[in-house]
Write a structure and sequence with these properties.
single chain, alpha/beta, Rossmann fold, Dimethylsulfoxide Reductase, domain 2, Barwin-like endoglucanases, 3 domains, 6-stranded mixed sheet, globular
Length: 785
């Protein structure tokens, strides 16, 4: 039965604010999950998908990339509340069909919020709009693909950009990057550029791999687990079960975050008696409420204190044997950490020397430490240095290649790590390109391409003629929103391979195509050999299958590999060296090619059909070796740097609501923070509100300053909230407009979503203003050292 979409949009004047919660999950989470599923998809489709999600041979959750056990049994409900919401959005029986597009002109859709657009339902057939037209209209698949081929062939490869969302499966990602490189470009921005690019940039030169080094089973052996810059209760709630089990076995958990997060205070697992009728489980033994951007200073202090304890009791802390055999640069690191400026450290972190020393003592005693982190550490100017400092601390105690120890960047999107493994990267290495060329008899370009931030600038400079988006919502995901959208509207062709309407469809190019695709839960059976499955890679390098079983909501939907193959056929003709049609008809053919090109994927088709799939090689974890350019793990030395706002300003970070996954809004209830029915809020400590002269719920315009330029976003409510002093928090993507394209993490070029210097003025009716001097400064933000 088709369900109608809600007509009402967000009314920010209906904002409700209550006290933040001190517990998370529980029966309430189950009820919300079921309610959203039934509301969108009905009982049958909801239960059929939920019972298969994250089960062996089932559907990989389209939400986060947290892994499942490959050694033990799985729970009957291997999903969280937000995973269930993601399934409901995809399984919905609401449809944005041709009649819907005919009813709503672009001028009307441009005024709608992402919440309203996303709730309209699944797109049912290809749609097209040309310059001067007011509505998208249906177009045949053949005409859509011909249009793509015509535009690509009418320009040069360097003016074509191919963006990828982290929900793209391995097989699609491999074909997609092959398509771009066959055209002649490495312009392959992806969502990694905006989230964990800093992690890979820091890890590769220090430990020789751009991924985490722990398995889920390591949480069973850890003595100490850090959860830094991360809110697992909203972003990857199944992690809470692993943390709760670890604590039950005696591990200690330390949370480091500017915001107190309910799930780290108390977790009520709805699959346990204690979570249903009991008091739940405290997750964090200790909570360090750090200032935004103060983590580099914190981990430098930890390093100093670990070395001081080793000097006091030789042989008690430092793993000298490991350091001598497997690392380089320890002496320089030890010299740099011999002394510390405690006044600067306390200013940078907002913590006392006693608080830091207490946690360092726990660290010194631990024989197995895992450090987990997410975007709280990756989106600041000094993010790469911060992450290298975490690696230093792990190296000091030899926390690699032993049970219960290692680095754990917790990825967001379900296959964002797999996309990079499949070659979706603007800076490919020569060995990858050589293997690709040998397998397909093509010549891949060697010049590096655009990442996401570069693409924003390219749009602004009118350097893009063709933009193809494999999933995602580029206009809302990136920084400098107004300039980006203006540039997108000037582009010759935009192509969106999507399941539902979103903002990027509205700020379209002069010609725009929307190509509707199957979702993760949809049955993919229109192939000569019968139903097909896809594969994904989770946060801990396990590759396994995913296969939908629900009937698609429209007979006109195409699978993503088929769409890529048909774009290629329209671009190159049928005589191209690459066998696109064979791959689209039988995904085993794609996997055989992957096995020939990608290290670790040998005998892919057989191994992925085993019960748990297979684990990719990870030298630091598997053999305690490090494939850096020097063959050893590398200690590094970075200067002290932190974010410092001038008088009358705060440091603003972005965050997700609990009813949100990236740019998808499931609802308007940030339940754990006590905020409902609104999103344009700024969370500010009550003492900072008083110092700035504003009352709780004051209506303000927000001004960000960067390198002599300003960005302004209007009509936000200030909300008194127990965040760290001198800091503030707002929802992503509403605050993205405040981020100048030049405010990035050095080295990784990740946007500085956690590094905005902002001030407030009372709200006026003045429209948004963007002051842009078209400069890209070499130095970013306020630092002290």
């Amino acid at each position: 039965m088709k369900r109608s979409a809600p007509e009402k949009d967000i009314n920010e004047d209906a904002l409700e604010v209550g006290a933040p919660k001190t517990t998370a999950a529980g029966v309430k989470a189950v009820m919300v999950a079921l309610e959203r599923g039934y509301e969108q998809a009905g009982v049958s489709r909801t239960l059929r998908s939920m019972l298969r999600v994250n089960q062996r041979g089932g559907i990989d959750c389209p939400g986060c990339a947290w892994p499942e056990s490959i050694t033990g049994a799985r729970k009957p409900a291997e999903f969280c509340e937000n995973g269930a919401k993601a399934l409901a959005e995809e399984n919905t029986t609401r449809t944005a069909d041709a009649a819907w597009w005919a009813k709503h002109p672009i001028s009307e859709l441009a005024e709608k919020t992402e919440y309203w657009l996303g709730n309209q339902g699944r797109i049912t057939e290809p749609m097209m709009i040309r310059a001067g037209e007011t509505h998208y209209r249906p177009v045949s698949w053949s005409r859509a693909f011909a249009t793509i081929g015509e535009h690509i062939n009418a320009t040069t490869p360097d003016r074509c950009v191919f963006y990828t969302s982290g929900r793209t499966a391995n097989e699609t990602a491999f074909m997609y990057q092959l398509f771009a490189r066959s055209i002649g470009t490495n312009n392959l921005p992806d969502c990694s550029n905006m989230c964990h690019e800093s992690s890979g940039t820091a890890l590769a030169p220090t430990i020789g791999i751009g991924k985490g080094t722990v398995s889920l089973e390591d949480f069973e052996h850890a003595e100490l687990i850090f959860v830094v810059g991360q809110n697992p209760g909203t972003n990857h709630p199944r992690m809470l079960s692993a943390l709760a089990d670890a604590r039950q076995r005696g591990a200690k958990v330390v949370a480091v975050n500017p915001l107190p997060e309910a799930a780290l205070l108390n977790f009520r697992d709805p699959q346990t008696v204690a979570g249903v009728i009991g008091d739940g489980t405290r997750i964090a033994d200790e909570f360090l409420q750090i200032k935004v951007g103060g983590d580099l200073a914190l981990f430098q202090a930890f390093g100093h204190l670990l070395l001081a304890e080793e000097a006091r009791v030789p042989g008690s802390v430092v793993d000298h044997e490991f350091i001598a055999a497997q690392t380089h640069g320890f002496d320089a690191y030890a010299a740099a950490r011999a002394e510390i400026d405690w006044d600067a450290t306390e200013e940078a972190t907002g913590l006392t020397r006693g608080e830091i020393t207490s946690i360092a003592s726990m660290l010194a005693k631990s024989k197995g430490t895992i450090i987990c982190w997410a975007l709280g550490l990756t989106q600041q100017p000094h993010s790469v240095d911060t992450l290298k400092e975490l690696i230093n601390v792990l190296l000091v105690q030899g926390n690699f290649g032993k049970p219960g120890a290692g680095a754990c960047p917790v990825r967001g999107h379900s296959n964002v790590q797999g996309d990079r493994t499949m070659g979706v990267w603007e800076k490919p290495k020569e060995e990858w390109l050589a293997a690709l060329d040998a397998e397909f008899s093509i010549t891949s370009p060697r010049e590096h391409g655009y990442d996401s931030t570069d693409t924003v600038e390219a749009f602004e400079n009118d350097a893009v003629d063709v933009f193809v988006s494999m999933g995602g919502n580029f206009s809302l995901a990136c920084s400098d929103t107004e300039a980006l959208e203006a540039g997108m509207r000037r582009t010759g062709l935009t192509v969106h391979i999507s399941t539902k309407p979103n903002r990027s469809h509205v700020v379209h190019g002069q010609t725009s195509l929307i190509l509707p695709t199957l979702g993760r839960t949809d049955r993919d059976d229109k192939h000569p050999g019968g139903p097909q499955f896809l594969t994904v890679e989770d946060s801990m390098s396990v590759v396994h299958t995913t296969q939908g079983r629900l009937a698609p909501m429209s007979p006109h939907l195409l699978a993503e590999p088929v769409i890529v193959a048909r774009m290629a056929a329209a671009t190159f003709g049928e005589g191209h060296a690459v066998g696109w049609r064979a791959m689209a008809e039988d995904y085993d053919v794609i996997r055989d090619h992957i096995a020939a090109v990608c290290p670790g994927f040998e005998d892919f088709n057989r191994r992925v059909r085993t019960r748990n799939g297979f684990v990719l090689p990870n030298p630091p974890r598997d053999t305690r070796t490090f494939a850096t350019d020097i063959g050893k793990a590398r200690f590094t030395v970075s200067p002290l740097e932190y974010l410092k706002a001038p008088a009358g300003h705060l440091i603003l970070q972005t965050m997700r609501s609990h009813d949100q996954y990236n740019t998808t809004f499931y609802g308007l209830d940030d339940r754990y923070r006590g905020i409902s029915n609104g999103r344009r809020v700024i969370l500010v400590h009550p003492d900072d509100l008083a110092e700035l002269g504003y009352a709780d719920r004051a209506l303000v315009d927000v001004i960000s300053t960067f390198a002599g330029t300003e960005r302004r976003a209007n009509r936000f409510r200030l909300v008194s909230y127990p965040t760290a002093r001198g800091c503030a928090a707002a929802y992503f993507p509403e605050a993205n407009a405040l981020v100048h394209r030049g405010l990035v993490a050095r080295e990784s070029n990740t946007p500085g979503y956690k590094a905005m210097t902002v001030s407030f003025v009372p709200h006026t009716a003045e429209p948004n203003r963007v002051f842009d001097e078209r400069e890209r400064p070499s130095t970013v933000g306020a630092a002290a050292g």
